[in-house]
Amino acid sequence: MKNLIIRTLTGAGFVAVTAVCILLNKYTFGVLMTCLMAAMMIEFYRMTMRGEYLFSQALSILAAVVMFALTYLYRGFNFPGRLVILSVIPVFIMMINSLYVKDKTDFGKFANLYTALLYIAVPIALTCFAVFPRPGEYSGVLLLSLFIIIWVSDIGGYLFGMTIGQRYGKKLFPEVSPKKSWAGFWGGLLLAVAAGVVLHYTGMLKYPLEHCIILSVIMNIAGVYGDLIESQWKRYYAVKDSGTIMPGHGGILDRLDSALLALPTGIIYLTVVNIL
Question: For the purposes of burial, counting CB atoms within 10 Å of the CB of 47, is it exposed (0-12), middle (13-18) or buried (19 or more)?
Answer without folding.
Answer: buried
